[in-house]
Amino acid sequence: MTAIRELTTEAAYTGFEEADKETLDVRKLADLVVLSEDPYLLSPSSIAQIKVTQTTIGAKAEWNI
């Protein structure tokens, strides 16, 4: 949970971008990935096996399996 928070909300805060990013909300920027599995339900040693199935930048799907 700590690693995910560091790469999302904390990264926005560190870059002084929390007004534009940090959370999913109307009028905020949202670059997203869809994962093959929920990382919160796996053991830490299994997280590297998760696959990215879709990447969305802004409102445009950039990559799909």
Major beta-sheet overview: 3 strands, antiparallel
Percent range for β-strand residues: 15-25%
Integer average pLDDT: 87
Instruction: Count the E strands.
Output: 3
Q: Distance between termini?
A: 26 Å
Could you walk me through the main structural features you see in this protein, from its secondary elements to its overall organization?
The chain is α+β, with helices and mostly antiparallel strands and 65 residues long. The protein has two helices and three strands, in the order ααβββ. The protein is flat and about 35 Å long. The two termini are 26 Å apart.
Question: Nutshell version of this structure?
Answer:
The protein has 65 residues and is of the alpha+beta class. It has 2 helices and 3 strands; from the N terminus they run H-H-E-E-E. Strands 1-2-3 form a 3-stranded antiparallel sheet, with no helix packed on it.
Which properties best describe this structure?
single chain, 65 residues, alpha+beta, 2 helices, 18% helix, 23% strand, flat
What is the element layout, followed by pairings?
Elements lengths: L1 H6 L1 H6 L17 E4 L16 E6 L2 E5 L1
Antiparallel strand pairs: 1-2, 2-3
